[in-house]
Amino acid sequence: MGAGHGRSEVRRIKAATVDGLLSPGARRAVQLKRRRTDRKTGKTTLKTIYAVTSLTAEQATSAQLAKLVRGHWKVEVLHHIRDTMFAEEASHLRTGNAPRAMATWRDLAIGALRLNGAHDIAAGLRRNVRDAPRPLALLGLA
Q1: What is the pTM of this model?
Q2: Which of 15, 91, 102 is nearest to 59 (CA)?
Q3: What does the alpha-carbon distance between residue 72 and residue 136 come to, in Å, rounded to a whole number?
């Protein structure tokens, strides 16, 4: 159970050992159910996520699997920010090191904004675009 961002959340996980999945090395199937209630509106949403893992029951408990799934969503959030704020998927850079270099620059921008207290990356980008010296100051270069 968790609370934050104006909502409460209850998560339940089930993991079952399975044989014969099409994914090579798959050992367990996982079902994660999440019930989230918005404290202001009272609206409740239910979401079910399925996953497959190569970890056996001896290698990872259900609680550890739940933690791994939540950790993976942190990575997905970063990719979502990079795509929505910087249109990363629409980029025409496809060869050599250019895609990786641009991803690094985007991550630097997001990280610098977060380190300076920005919770809304879009607002932080707009604020820095309007004031040319601000990005340099943000990085400690001015």
Answers
A1: 0.54
A2: 15
A3: 32
**pLDDT at 2 (0 to 100):** 65
Over the range 91-119, which residues count as b (16 or more CB within 10 Å of their CB) and which as e?
eeeeeeeeeeeebeebeebbebbeeeebe
pLDDT in tens, 45-54: 999 989 888 9
Cα–Cα distance measured from residue 17 to residue 28, given in angstroms and rounded to the nearest whole number: 4
* Relative orientation angle of helices 121-129 and 62-86, to the nearest 10 degrees: 30
- Residue 90: CA atoms inside 13 Å, Cβ hemisphere, count? 6
> Which amino acid is located at 139 in the chain?
L
Say if residues 50 and 30 touch (Cβ distance below 8 Å). yes
The CA distance from 33 to 46, in Å, is 7
**Each residue's pLDDT tens digit, 79-118:** 888 888 888 888 888 888 988 899 898 888 888 898 888 8
- Show the tokens assigned to 24: 């090579």
